[in-house]
What we know:
With about 190 residues, the chain is α/β, with parallel strands linked by helices. It has a single domain, classed as 3-Layer(aba) Sandwich (Rossmann fold). About 40% of the residues lie in helices and about 15% in strands. It contains 7 helices and 7 strands.
Amino acid sequence: MKNIAVFCASSPKIPGIYFEDARKVATYLVKAGYGIIYGGGGAGLMGAVADEALRHTGQIKGIIPGFMVDVEWEHKDVEDMVHVETMHKRKELMVQQSAGIVALPGGTGTLEELFEVMSLKKLGQYPHPIVVLNTAGYYNGLLELTNKMVEEKFMRPVHNEMWNIVNTPEEVVPAIRNAKSWGEDSIKFAAL
């Protein structure tokens, strides 16, 4: 079974539309036969993804740093839970054990995870699909920024093809399946 890493918010205070879409994404991933790897939290979109995967008897694995366990952020019902020492190790394992990334709306942690994996892909170190769910236009600002990066020659136009931006949960699995191949030979484009 291929695992998809899901990056997403841990805040329980965000608008309900983001929770609805997070649950739908988890449902579609499970029904498509994917396992889910996520940050191990029990609240926010993390909790919603885990709860929905469990509800559909899907395979879900959490990876969480010890300090988050200490403050009781860990999801109590996810049996496959890996405790690590640092946030860096958490992200490293999520990326290493995944065959694709889905980024749901999130804060600085989600953006940091997304940008690192985009950098890895640009350098030919992560050949798998990256799908960004743009619920309610959440990532419109990111799209403007990456287009500006291309316009001002910080990136080549091909670098804006490293990921797929989708607007609905229904588009996530097809975007994973139809993602453009991006192998190690793509590193030749990184610095151009």
